[in-house]
Design goal:
Helix content is about 50%, strand content about 0%.
């Protein structure tokens, strides 16, 4: 923590609030005021998380960088997939859960028997297929990213230039 504080204060000229700043395990620290604690039912976790996300979306929803919010959405969904993978705990339970979610036998067996960690497994195409984004939306998970509007669907810049400069076609 000392080296990070030194870098932030000397190099970036930022003030660090030592009362609020700390380095710790993911289970011990909170993310944006929310922590992923074990032993909580998944639906309850999503309900609590959605309350936090609604507040964050109200505050940051109209930012000029929606790609940051989309990447945070992706991180949250990946963290939820890792949480479920960790909850399933044993290979047999993981296999049964994957088969119940329509993952084919060979892929479910390979994934359930993998020795990789939950975070790494959460990014695999098989788990993303088994636990799609729509599933989290149906469970009530709120998205941070703003919905694309019909007038500007991809949140791209709107072209405002006219031919011939500011005045149009004239000289």
């Amino acid at each position: 923590m000392a080296s990070v504080t030194r870098f932030l204060t000397r190099r970036l000229k930022l003030k660090v609030n030592t009362a609020k700043s700390a380095v710790g395990d993911v289970g011990e620290r909170s993310f944006l005021g929310f922590s992923f604690t074990r032993g909580v039912r998944f639906r309850q976790l999503i309900t609590e998380l959605s309350r936090y996300l609604q507040g964050w979306r109200a505050y940051y929803g109209y930012c000029e960088t929606p790609s940051v919010l989309r990447s945070m959405d992706g991180w949250i969904r990946r963290r939820l997939r890792a949480y479920l993978w960790h909850q399933w705990k044993y290979r047999q339970r993981r296999y049964r859960a994957l088969r119940k979610l329509d993952v084919r036998h060979s892929l479910a067996a390979k994934l359930a028997g993998s020795g990789r960690g939950a975070w790494r497994i959460s990014a695999t195409p098989a788990l993303c297929y088994a636990l799609p984004n729509a599933l989290f939306a149906n469970l009530g998970l709120v998205s941070l990213a703003p919905e694309p509007s019909s007038s500007n669907p991809l949140n791209r810049r709107v072209r405002t230039r006219t031919h011939g400069g500011v005045g149009g076609w004239g000289p």
